[in-house]
Specification:
The complex is a heterodimer of chains A (about 230) and B (about 240).
Chain A (H helix, E strand, L loop, with lengths): L7 H4 L1 H36 L4 H15 L3 H11 L6 H9 L2 H27 L3 H9 L4 H16 L1 H14 L11 H12 L2 H31 L6
Chain B lengths: L1 E10 L2 E11 L4 E5 L6 H8 L7 E6 L2 E2 L7 H6 L1 E4 L11 H11 L5 H14 L15 H13 L5 E5 L7 H16 L3 E5 L3 H7 L2 E6 L2 E6 L1 H6 L4 H11 L4
Parallel strand pairs in B: 3-8, 3-9, 6-7, 7-8
Antiparallel strand pairs in B: 1-2, 1-4, 4-5, 9-10
Helix pairs in contact in B: 3-4, 3-5, 4-5, 5-6
Classes of the chains: A mainly alpha (about 230), B alpha/beta (about 240).
Chain lengths: ~230, ~240
């Protein structure tokens, strides 16, 4: 083995700064997409359980479509495909902003929301139907019963699968490099191209992804323990 | 306050309510009893439209449930409903269980709602439990909170669907006492129960049901001393001395 390890490449200097800026973009991309995909997942889950056929069918179609096509295809679609059908003025506005980032957020959000919606729906189904009856009896409409009584309980029960979805989202954010978002994976690749120190660059990226996974799992487990405790053993 | 006119309801082929005609006046306490499967729970659940009726006319607090234009949510806000299994919201504290609907539906500000909730908790003897979660309470305590939750909406009618059937015997008394106080205060109440002591002592009228039909309707004195229908006689015999 003649490979000469040079860890200094990733622990300081210009390349280190590239990596740090990549971490920043990855964190931003993940957090924004986690928040949006959770909200969208809630909406789709409620629509999926609606009494109105067309609303339910739309949600069902949405779920099947976005769960069953590759994320990479979806990302390319939003980035290369969507602007072709948008009016020129919208395109000009998009290009002025960070269109790569926006396309990545849209793709990650929509893709992940389909999975989250299914997790939340199974959480809702495990809430006894008497909870809905109690809420309706107080005069809450169906939607408001969901909002104040059913979903807060369902989401708590959904925390373990939600951890999985958030972890997947964070890891999937690395695909955004393919449409030119300068996130961690993109920067690690850059470092490798400039220095040929691929082992070091990708080791560093691996460690950062691992650390972020632990942070997500840790935070959610903590939240789980703090809010689940009072409602256990009912 | 409540008026059933020729009400029918079916669950598939099962005729659960068969030509119900019943009136409850303001301030009246009516106990509904009968063997299991007689339709008494279904009857009480039609009053706030948890079970929609199929035929006939049902008018509650001046609102016609058979009229599709009636705002059901508005009607339900006027009716307190107490379940056999309490059905408190497990993710909320006792205080929040009580204040949720007044704040969100009656649009009370939090402070007023909490003061009112504390007064109700005082009344059911659970003021010190305001910050507990339902899972930390006994069944009897949960049911008293559920009654306070119903009362917080200042309802015109309180409905009770077997409120003591899920309780250990030593906790039945505390719940019945709260219900008795409520009855004395002039609340219009309809109670599905097997507690014949409550029926005899507190109610103004007893309704006996079997197979989806009201077989007998009488003042408690009359009903217990001299039941007209032989199925009512049989039911009373079984429930008052189950060993024979």
């Amino acid at each position: 083995m003649h490979y000469h390890f040079d860890w200094a490449v990733v622990t300081g200097g210009k390349y280190y700064e590239w990596l740090v800026s990549g971490v920043y973009v990855t964190v931003k991309l993940s957090l924004v997409s986690i928040a949006l995909s959770f909200l969208l997942g809630l909406v789709i889950a409620v629509m999926r359980m609606s009494r109105f056929g067309p609303v339910r069918w739309f949600a069902h179609g949405y779920l099947e479509f976005f769960r069953n096509t590759p994320l990479l295809v979806q990302m390319f679609f939003w980035y290369f495909g969507s602007y072709k059908i948008l009016p020129q003025s919208v395109n000009d506005w998009l290009v002025k902003g960070d269109f790569e980032f926006a396309a990545a957020v849209i793709a990650l959000t929509i893709y992940t929301s389909a999975f989250i919606a299914e997790d939340i729906r199974s959480g809702v189904r495990s809430i006894p139907k008497e909870q809905m009856e109690a809420a309706r009896s107080s005069g809450f409409s169906y939607i408001r019963s969901m909002r104040y009584i059913i979903l807060p309980q369902a989401v708590r029960l959904t925390i373990p699968p939600l951890i999985n979805q958030f972890l997947n989202l964070m890891k999937n954010s690395s695909l955004a490099m393919t449409i030119g978002v300068a996130e961690l994976m993109y920067q690690a690749r850059q470092v490798e191209s400039y220095t040929f120190k691929g082992f070091e660059a990708f080791s560093a990226a691996t460690l950062v992804y691992l650390a972020m996974s632990f942070v997500i799992t840790g935070l959610m487990t903590l939240y789980d323990r703090m809010v689940l405790q009072p409602i256990k053993g009912r | 306050m409540i008026r059933f006119e020729g009400v029918h309801k079916w669950f598939g082929p099962l005729h659960v309510l068969n030509n119900i005609n019943l009136r409850v006046k303001p301030g009246e306490v009516v106990v509904v009893c009968g063997p299991s499967g007689s339709g008494k729970s279904t009857l009480i659940r039609t009053i706030n439209d948890l079970e929609p009726i199929n035929e006939g006319k049902l008018v509650v607090a001046g609102m016609d449930l058979s009229d599709r234009k009636t705002d059901i949510n508005k009607l339900r806000a006027e009716i307190g409903f107490v379940f056999q299994q309490f059905n408190l919201y497990p993710h909320l504290t006792v205080l929040k269980n009580i204040t949720l609907a007044p704040i969100k539906i009656r649009k009370l500000d939090r402070k007023t709602a909490e003061e009112q909730a504390m007064a109700l908790l005082e009344r059911v003897g659970l003021a010190e439990k305001r910050n507990a979660h339902p899972s930390q309470l006994s069944g009897g305590q949960q049911q008293r909170v559920a009654i306070a939750r119903g009362l917080a909406m200042k309802p015109k009618i309180m409905l009770f669907d077997e409120p003591t059937s899920a309780l250990d015997p030593e906790m039945i008394g505390e719940v019945l006492q709260v219900m008795k106080d409520l009855a004395v205060s002039g609340m219009t109440m309809m109670v599905v129960t097997h507690e014949m002591g409550f029926a005899r002592e507190v109610s103004h009228r007893v309704v006996f049901m079997d197979h989806g039909t009201v077989l007998e309707e009488a003042e408690p004195e009359e009903f217990f001393k001299n039941p007209q229908h032989d199925r009512a006689q049989q039911f009373l015999k079984q429930i008052l001395s189950p060993m024979h």
